[in-house]
Each structure stands twice: as C-alpha cells, then as structure tokens.
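Backbone geometry tokens:
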Amino acid sequence: MFREMTADGAAADALELEAVFARWVELAEPREILTSLKSSGVRASRWAAPFFEAWAAADYAGAMAATVGMGDFSGIRALVAIRRADPAILQDDFQIRNSDNSGIADALTALGRTDPELAKDVATAGGSRPDENADIIVAIARGWAERDPAAALEWVKSLPLSERNRTGALDALFSLWLKNDLPAATKAAGELAIPPSGGVSSDSAVAILRRPESALSGVFLTNLLDPFASVGALHRQLARSPVDWSTTIGLMRTIDTEGWFAADPAKAAAEAAGLPPGGARDFLLSSICAQWADRSPAEATAFATAHDLKPPRVKVDPPAEQLGAEPAMTLAPLFSGGETTAADRERLTALEAKWAQADPRAAADWLIAQPDFASFGYATDPYSSTMFDNSLGYYWARIDAKGAARWVEKLPDGPRRNRAWQAVSPYVREYSPDLAFTTSAMLVGDASRMKILERNLEGVASKVGLPAAREILDSVYITGDERASLLKSLENPTPAAK
C-alpha cells in the first residue's frame, strides 16, 4: 500500500500518507520504519514530511533526537518545532535556511504573533547575520505587527539589515499596521529615517503612509484597506487629493493593476458618470472605459465619446495567419526605413509577438540581424526596444532560459550580444542565478557589466545563499577590483527594484 501511495503520479496527499504512517508507528519502532523507507527506493521527498509528522505526534522528543543532521528532515523538523514553540530546537538546532517548505513562513508569522521573544531568537539562530535570514525576519515582523506593531518596528529598526532587507521587513509590518490603526501607522512611518537611496518603492506601504496627500498613495491605500471599494469610495479618495489631473498617466496603471477592477464596467461607468464633475471623476471614467475596452471596445468608445472623454485605446490583435509563409518579409516594414502609419506599426508589432511566441529562436535571429539594431535602446526607440526584450526575454527565456542563454553565448562579441544578454539575463537569473552570473562574467564587457553582475550575484545570494554567492566569485574570471566591489555589494545590496 505504501509503494502504491508514494509512486510517482500517485494521487495520495500528505494527510493520507500521514494517516498511514500514524498507524504504522503504532505497530512498529519508528527507527526500523525509517530504515525500511530509506531502502524502499521511493524518493525521500515523497515520504519524509508525512512520516516525521506521524512520528513526532507519537514521540516528539524521540523524533527530534533521531533525525539531527538528516537533510531530508531539516525543513519538517523546523516546521514542527515552530508549531510547538520549542526553544531547545529553535535556538540551538535551527536549519530553516536550507528548507523549501512552503508552510514555514506561515508558521513563523504565527510564532511572531504568539511568542515574539522566541521568534526573535529564531531570526539570529546559530549566530547567523540578520541579512542571511531576511525572509525569516519578514515573516516574524508580519505576525508581530498583528500583536504589537510598535514593538515589532523597534525590533526591525534595531537589526543591522541592508537597506533592501530593512525595507522589505518594514513594508510587511506597515501593511498590517495601517489596516488596524491607520493614524498610528501614518505617524510612525513619517518618523522613520529613510535615506534617499533607501529602496522605498512608490507602491510600498511605507511610501504610501509617508505621502498621504498624493493621489497615487490614495489609490493604493484605498485598495489596501478595501480591495472591493465602490466607485464612490475610490472617487472620494481621489477627489480629496491635490492632483494635477492633466498629468495623470502614472495613475492609470495603478487603478488597472493594483486591486481595483470594475467587474461590470458598464454599471461602474454609469455610476461614475453621476459623480460630481471634475478631474477626479473624468479620470475615473477614463480608467473604467480602458478596462471596458478590453471586453467591449465599441461600447466603451461610444460611452467615452458621449462624455467628451478621449476614446480608450483598443488592443490590436491581428490573426497569426497574417504573418504568412515568410514572417520576415511580412514584418520588414518595421525596419525598412519607409513611412508606416501608427496603426500599421501597431499591427506589425502584434504580429511579431505572435511569431516570437510560436518560434522564438527564428524571431530572435531576425531581430538581432536588423541593420538599425543600434537604435534598440529605450531612450531612442522604446517600441523596438520593448519588442526586442519581449521576444528574447518574455517569449523565449521565460520558457527556455537555458536555450536562450546558449543562443546568446554563440553570438559574435559586440554590442548586439551585450544587448541580447540584457534582454535574456533577468529570466535566466530566475531559472538559475549562478548560470546568469557566470554567463554575465563571460559575455558582458561594456559599461553595464558591473550592474548586471551585481544583480545576478544578488540572485545567487537570495536563492542559493550567501556562502554560495561568495564561492562563485572564485569560480569565474573577474578582476581583483571587480571581486572586491562585488563582495561589498553583498554586504550592502542595492535596493530591489519593483
């Protein structure tokens, strides 16, 4: 029965396996069961957690003592110890950093809420530096904020964290605090000493609370407090913000993507049309029409025209058949130097995206060979630059990071290869940060080299660990000055972009 339940593709979940193990533990010595499991040929990832749960339920001390130093049990030992708030394990034998157990963060949040003093010891278990346990600190701060946010804030401020990790912990803390006591959270956020390069993004809870008068903060705050805010509630928040409504493009994305969505845009538009006239109302109407246009462009355009608003942008989605048998010939007008209308360029750009989705290697080969490739920069040609990044990055490297990276490696040395690696590198970093770092060290030689190396090394540190990040600096060719600078960046990471 055990082999059937643990076979690859078996439908049995962890709770079912735990029930089987609980019965087995009643009938046999757990250490003998463990020996049988190890020799069964079944991957430990299938049975380690449910077996340990059953063993610990029957004999917690025995299970903990018998599995010290066993890597297969490091994550589940930590999780069970957190649930039991066991100081002996959490303070002296805590192995959370090497665990990928998804329940540990939730358990740490609960521990921060119920026993923050013990949780504080977990954050520095084994003498580890706080920056090595940044995720642990965020989870604890989130839970402690529910119990005593002011005390949690003082704790986070006392830790020698990098600015990036400090900001992450503060954001988790204030996101909870503002929902429970907005005036106190606003006052505390305003008193924080944050340097100009402190990494506080415009959409973080800290930034929102420090700029309560801005419309951007108003929209975010409305969504944080009530993700299902009515049209009227959002309008009231916008109307009381001193905004120059002639320059509101930065807010459109906020309303469209940060939690406020019109489930019935026709109804929402009609409601918004009845609000007091002014910039806030017109902006809200335009935002609703933009969402409406994705589902019913004709109705949205007619509504906008009837209310003297700029017609919403309608997405262009030509059928892939328009690419024809020779996509390169179809798309040639994009780079031929001839005159093309905005509508034609938009249609061809959409077709190129369809080609990149269907055959990213062919689309990449075509793009990299274009004679005016030098213009693929955001400052000079944002449309072509975005097309290039999407084709090589989003449509290829996101799906096949290794294949895209190997393609870039084979390109001739020069600005084209450097630009291609810029497009591919972020997705390779998600797939394998050490591959991204070593490839960057080998390929990139222009002014962007150190910036790319720092980002990829930061990926190694966060996904694999600081020891691995330090070790990789000795495994690739970099100069002594570069190594010193990169080591320094590990101690003081650049703020994470959002």
The longest helix spans residues 163-180. The radius of gyration is 27 Å.
